[in-house]
User: Fold this.
Amino acid sequence: MSKRLITVLLFLLALAWTGHGAQARGNSKPRDQLVIGITQFPSTFNPNIDAMMAKTYILAMTRRPFTAYDAGWKLICMLCVELPTIENGLAVPERTPKGKQGIAVTYTIRPDAMWGDGTPVSTEDVLFTWKVGRHPKSGVGDMEFYRSLYKIDVRDERTFTMHFDKLTFEYNAINGFSLLPAHIDEAAFASPAAYKNRTAFDTDTLNPGLYFGPYRIAKVVTGSYVVLERNPTWWGKKPYFKRIVVRTIPNTAALEANLLSGELDMIAGELGLSVDQALAFEKRRGRRFNVIYKPGLVYEHIDLNLDNPFLKDKRVRKALIYALDRETLSRQLFAGRQPVAHSSVNPLDWVYAKDVRKYAYDPKKAARLLAQAGWKTIRRGVRVNAKGEKLSLEIMTTAGNRSRELVEQVLRSQWKKLGIEVSIRNQPARVFFGQTLTERRFTAMAMYAWISSPESVPRTTLHSAHIPSVNNNFSGQNYTGFRNGEMDALLEGIEVELDRTKRKALWRRLQDIYTEELPVIPLYFRANPYILPKWLKGLTPTGHQDPSTLWVEDWRGG
Amino acid sequence: MPRFLLQRLVQSAIVIALMSFAVYWLMGMMPGDPIDLMISADPKMTSDDAVRLRALYGLDRPIWERYLNWLGAALSGDLGFSRLYAKPVLDILAPALGNTVLLMGSSFILSLLIALPLGVLGATKPYSRTDYTVNLFAFAGISVPPFWLALLLIIGFSVMLGILPASGLDIGEGGGLWERARFLILPMSTLVIASLGGQTRYMRAAMIEVLRQDYIRTARAKGLSESRVVLAHGLRNALIPVVTIIALDFGGLFSGALITETIFAFPGMGKLIFDSIMGNDFNLALIALLLATLLTLAGNLLADLAYTGLDPRITFEGKGR
Assistant:
């Protein structure tokens, strides 16, 4: 009986090993395939419906925006021939028919740009994209751009002028204007309300005519993987890899295991492991891989509810931040890979003020400020005021997010040393973002992150007109309830200031007010960890919302 | 029998109708709607955009009105589109269901093929070394958390030995049936080990109970061989409670195994249902859950019918013999 069992087991092992052999042989072939692991699957492949990083990551290999920020956070042309500016005459300030200050910006599509089926990319596509984008029933999420773009003049098949009804410093950045192929998708738009369900990007995803980047989508298994193959009509540098497979593995432990077993070649930094997971991975298996940490524009912070009677006092807010040793926290928990934030502006951003007020760890100062604010007595480890009220605050974040929960514990212990009692009440992300924040139901502190772009004006998070309330049906993202007239004026002023020197001065003042008033406790800028094979060269993380895949043709197999 | 079947069909229809409303209502009661989720992913979306999109998706209407709209469309054969995958619900459901049936079905059959003989073996020699060994493995299977076991199998067979893929499905590089089957081995093993213990224990307990009955003693007294006593007389009667348990597991065959599917990145029903609920994908979640409910009801009906085959004393005529 046992001999038979052993024979069967040996047979199965041999059978399995045969498969392994095939796999091993596959690995020894010249590297014409790259398998990337990410944790999310796109909900749609239409570039203009639903904002989602998984979609942006994949589509960046198959299409190119007119403009994008490069790895140095500089605005560049990708699909256009020349970046229009007021200086080169391609952007001309003008008055709108309604008398508002606007601007006309002229772009020319690259002459060699062609859809995957050989149809030239033309102004017809520009007009169709505009038509879809501005239709209220098309399902496009962010319509602000299309509301502002009130007219397009077609100069010829490749050149067009966009007329905007406002003049902002970002007048030439049309990063989100993703072209749709009129020759394919126009039929789906016959009924605009049904477009979101009928778009060829989802009904005919493998149609080569939907793509004009270095790759095109060749196979999709929903929820599982996407296969990309070289696009023969691509105008730029020939990509090194014949085939790229993007596999979705939502569980990060399984993602690591797949990388170690050779099923994956790399884990994308944009949608992969968190920094603490990557650090642990690097410690165990780092020698086999290149682990790159790229701090970026994901700003982890704590919103303070300024309607809380204790937090209304600026001295208490300052004491809260002085009581925190954020440098040590970043060093101990994240090996210093996630730089401490001093304001919402990232140090890599050109508008960052280097001499912005920095709150170093100073528990004595924190205690002094608390005493000045009336929290002198400490009873059973907790400060109390003259009324006998305890300095007790609640902190909330997304339950299940290991990094945040870890940080939360450290913060609580640091505050406790000063007699500040902090209770933790975490919620599932869906409840936290779906109700608690949007309806300002957090009583004191809410820890989460904002994702922005370079030189992103924090109007929705700091302007007093954006405080969610019953009266405005809980619209706006100023969850702290911050009201400051000068800040409002700055936010409005920065947007329309074209002069870089003057704008930088406005930004400087904005950061001063932010750090002085402290509606928010800045924590750190999150880093994206890229786990790459030693042989992969040419991948440059950007640290902002434009993913590294926008330059996939530079990737090499070494 | 026809009367019984009719009754059960009417009951099932009522359960399905109630379930559909309960699921719809509960999902509607969850904080945050799809538009809130969109806003959290795109800070540039304005409140005007949110209002427009809520109207476009019909989320500005009361929940009962939305439910009635959905019900009307569903009854006319239009199951709608999945919000999460931008495809007709059936296009999403069919492959996931196929994958789940393949994974869960093969695991279920394999675990039964192992568990039933093991249970019988343990019961025929109670408190013997064999029985203790069977029990040891059974309790180990019950006690080991599936996520841990799954990770252990991945580390052992994929990372260390490198003989089996860690997760997912074949990524279309060609290869035969074996290449595809290799992707099933680890998730299937996890499910088999996890369910083996329970099934073995049920079988053992039922068999021990039956083997104590008078008719078994009579069969032995008549001089029948032990194997005939156990297999022909004991097993058939012992299967009645086991069939009930199997029937209850039947629905699970189609609703998937969330943890195992998540860890092995296996695109099955469990993960699909979970994602659709969390993503507020009403159409997809409803149809997937109703399908699972329907199949559980069907499983129970089949179990009831199987009782009559296993035990002639059971009838549906309203009186026992």
Remarks:
- Chain A touches chain B through 73 residues (CB under 8 Å).
- The first strand of chain A starts at residue 33 and ends at 38.
- The first helix of chain A runs from residue 2 to 28.
